[in-house]
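Entry: Histidine phosphatase family protein
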Amino acid sequence: MRLYVARHGETEWNRLNKVCGRTDSPLTDTGLRQAQLLADKLDDCPIDVIIASPLSRAQKTAQAVAQRKHLQVVTDDRLIEQDYGVYEGVPRDDEDFLNNKRMFAYRYPGGESMMDIARRTYDLIIETKKRYPDSSVLFVCHNGICRVICSYFRDMTNEEYFEFSQDNCGYNVYEF
């Protein structure tokens, strides 16, 4: 099985450098163009199934690829971004946010821990492999989810995990 993992296009909150978890920040014009470029990049890739986060930024990005591939987008809530709780909307360089981000088992007040998102995301990866064993699947999701998926396939130090960032509409490919 081949798993493509793409991050959504640029949103207004990405542009403003705000922590954006569950807030449904829409794609900017740049984000819409990035989604079309992602579809171009994946044009020759044999994608059989597209699964996306329910947030509109991921849905619109997935739709750009789905239209090109003549596929439907399957929505799975387990691909939704981490719930950052009280840190939702703060600047991404907020000192308290960054300190707490380094503590993977820490549950943000009113939100989730990275361990919480790892559990749901790892379960989805395992389930997807069982359901589509000989297929190429595209997940369209969020930076935090891309980070967790990378950690499923690759050993990462704490610092590598903390520093991981996926560009808007960037993607990685994993085989298993």
